[in-house]
Design a protein that fits this description.
With about 60 residues, the chain is mainly α. It is built from four helices and no strands. The chain is flat, with a radius of gyration of 16 Å.
Length: about 60
C-alpha cells in the first residue's frame, strides 16, 4: 500500500487495519464505516453475502 501511494508508511497501514478489525467486531459502528468509506452493502452481512451469492451465481450460470 505504501509503494502504491495509498499510505504514507506502515503506521498508516496498521492504523487502517485496526479500524477494519474494529468494524468487523462491531459492524454497527457508523463512525468507523464513515471513516473507511463503507456503507451497508459492506457492513451488513446479509447484504454483503447476498451480493457475493449473486456474483457467484452469475459466474456459473449456464450459457455464459
Amino acid at each position: 500500500m505504501v509503494e502504491a501511494g495509498l499510505a504514507r508508511g506502515e503506521d498508516d497501514v496498521e492504523a487502517y487495519a485496526l479500524q477494519v478489525d474494529a468494524l468487523h467486531r462491531e459492524p454497527n459502528r457508523r463512525d468507523l464505516a464513515w471513516r473507511l468509506g463503507l456503507d451497508e452493502q459492506v457492513t451488513d452481512e446479509r447484504l454483503r453475502l447476498a451480493e457475493m451469492r449473486n456474483f457467484i451465481g452469475a459466474l456459473v450460470r449456464p450459457g455464459r
